[in-house]
Amino acid sequence: MSDDAAAVGESTDEDDNAAPTGYAPDDADEDDDVSEVATADLIDRIVDTDSSLAAEATELESRIDSLAEDVETKDAEIDDLTDKLSRARADFKNYKKRMKKQQEEMKARATEDLVGELIDVRDNLVRALDQDADADIRPGVESTLEAFDRALEDENVAFISPDPGEDVDPERHEVMQRVDSDQPAGTIADLYQQGYEMADKILRPARVTVSRDE
Questions:
Q1: By CB neighbour count within 10 A (0-12 exposed, 13-18 middle, 19+ buried), where does 206 fall?
Q2: What gap in Å lies between CA 35 and CA 47, rounded to an integer?
Q3: End-to-end CA distance of the chain
Q4: 79, 99, 132, 154: least surrounded by Cβ within 10 Å?
Q5: CA of 36: how far to CAs of 25, 48, 115, 184, 192, in Å?
Q6: pLDDT in the model for residue 87
Q7: What is the pTM of this model?
Q8: CB 170 within 8 A of CB 210
Q9: What is the CA radius of gyration of the chain?
């Protein structure tokens, strides 16, 4: 074999073992294309995610602002109600003071009216006693007693004067003793002393005797 043939053969063998011309650059381009697509897709996803998060953040901020406004409104309402309650308490306190003062004034006036009537009764008694010792003072005393009774009636004082034969009322009658009487047994025989009541309250029960059981 000639030297040229040997050179050609060697060259042929080396070319068979070598990579095909243009193959490596094609794979690199494809990898670059895939990388660019993945990057673009990732960017789009990030942008979409950022947009979604931004929308959610905007919605949350709006809700927070709305809740803050509601809180301010409620705080204002609470302050207004608290102020009204304070004024109502102060007004009620003043009302109680006024009512207490009015009651005291009414009580004082009522006492003044009663004392004024009792003064007249006392003056009548003094005039009766100023008469001569042998004078008949009974008419004057009777007139004074009538004036005194009118004063009691003006104060809504009523007499408790049970009649003989009435049943005994433990709340209105005080039994002094049991006596022989023609009245039914256990009933009132006689009135010993009148009682008094005022506005359905017993000031003093009537003192009575009761017919003895046979």
A1: buried
A2: 18
A3: 181
A4: 132
A5: 17, 18, 116, 130, 128
A6: 93
A7: 0.48
A8: no
A9: 60
CB 184 within 8 A of CB 166: no
Distance CA 175, CA 207 (A): 6
Whole-number Å distance between alpha carbons of 156 and 174: 22
33/43 Cα distance (integer angstroms): 15
Length of the chain: 214
Q: What tokens does 15 get? A: 């070319």
pLDDT of residue 2: 44
Tokens at residue 185, please? 């047994």
Q: Could you tell me the CA-to-CA distances from 209 to 156, 184, 202 in Å, in that order?
A: 27, 12, 19
Amino acid at position 86, single letter? S
Cα(1)–Cα(99) distance, integer angstroms: 145
How far apart (Å, rounded) are the C-alpha atoms in residues 195 and 176? 13
**If DSSP codes are grouped into helix, strand and coil, which group holds residue 164?**
coil
State the DSSP code for 171.
Answer: T
Q: Look up residue 9 and give its two tokens.
A: 């053969």
**Token pair for residue 41?**
């897709």
Q: Look at residues 157, 161, 165 and name the one whose alpha carbon lies nearest to residue 195.
A: 161
Is residue 137 within 8 A of residue 168, CB to CB? The reply is no
